[in-house]
Amino acid sequence: MDNNPLVSIIINNYNYGSFLAEAIDSALNQTYSTVEVIVVDDGSTDNSREIIANYKDQIIPLLQENGGQASAYNAGFAASSGEIICFLDSDDWFLPEKVALVVKEFQADSEIGWCFNTLRLVNDKTNKEIGLTRQNGVGKCDFRDLVKQGTPLYVPPSSGLCFRRSLLAQIIPIPEVFINGADGYPMKAAPVLSPGFMMEQALTIMRVHGSNNSTLRQDRPQLQTKNIVNAYFLRAKFPQLAKICNRMFARGLSAYWKYKVIYIRYGVPYDNPQELIKKYFTYLTWKEKVAILFKATYYSFPEKAPDSNNLALR
């Protein structure tokens, strides 16, 4: 890796004009200067595009029709040139030293393919800290055997994810059936492909506000149906994740039985819930089928239902 590798910060945005400038400014004001900032606006109808235009040639703007978060990630990666890729949601922001510390870890160890950091959650109204994201381990981590055994991993959401380009290229494109929550796909795929580094420092601030799609949203249990989609695509591409995917699928199936909808983008390939479920079952042995149906039934009991939010805090 070069002494000063280019870092691409991909900001995905949809109707977060009230937060967007702070996210962009945090990316531009890093202590590490070899950075390109790519802002993907996914068909916003608020003032987001006016804000983007104000930055002129300081950023690389990508203005697209609404295609969902996965589409924004894919477009941002295709437009990027960096050896290191960092994701940033437009309602969050980076601390100034984040990129410098991430680059340091990648330079120190050529084996690691990903570097994830803790996020500090802050209430948008009170500006008070709510908590820190939970994660497995600190320092260099190799989870490849653990995920094959089916051990669940706690990893940060999208604004805490950074990848070596060569690793992310093995994961992208993310299936564009996701509306949002597409970060679940790369965050689960990366640890099965390569060792990585877990940074204990809270280098990203995650804003909790009334318009969050899923963060700490206990009123949207139907979001669990996204697990069906994640499980299907992850198992198809990364069979090493079979045991983890089966657990995810059981949770999603339980939610689908209850809510009769699946939280995905329609009008694209693989948007038929029944077909996704049928296809997933074709991957399974009869023992796996029985186990999944048992777990899905178990999760159907209200007191046993998994948390509707994927975010684990400490």
Q: Topology of this structure?
A:
Layout: E1 7-13, H1 17-28, E2 35-42, H2 48-54, E3 60-64, H3 69-79, E4 84-89, E5 92-94, H4 98-108, E6 114-123, E7 129-132, E8 139-141, H5 144-149, E9 161-164, H6 165-168, H7 184-193, E10 196-208, H8 226-237, H9 242-259, H10 273-282, H11 286-299
Parallel strand pairs: 1-2, 1-4, 2-3, 6-10
Antiparallel strand pairs: 4-9, 5-10, 6-7, 6-9, 8-10
Helix pairs in contact: 1-2, 8-9, 8-10, 9-11
Global geometry: globular
User: What's the CATH class of the largest domain, please?
Assistant: Alpha Beta
Say what the CATH topology of the largest domain is.
Answer: Spore Coat Polysaccharide Biosynthesis Protein SpsA, Chain A
Structural class: alpha/beta
CATH homologous superfamily (4th level) name of the largest domain: Spore Coat Polysaccharide Biosynthesis Protein SpsA, Chain A
Secondary structure: number of strands: 10
Q: Please state the second-level CATH architecture of the largest domain.
A: Alpha-Beta Complex
- How many separate domains? 2
Distance between the termini: 34 Å
Mean pLDDT: 89
Percent helix, as a range, is 25-40%
* Approximate strand percentage: 15-25%
Largest sheet: 10 strands, mixed
Helix and strand element order: EHEHEHEEHEEEHEHHEHHHH
What's the tally of helices? Answer: 11
Backbone CA Rg: 19 Å
Low-confidence stretches: 216-220
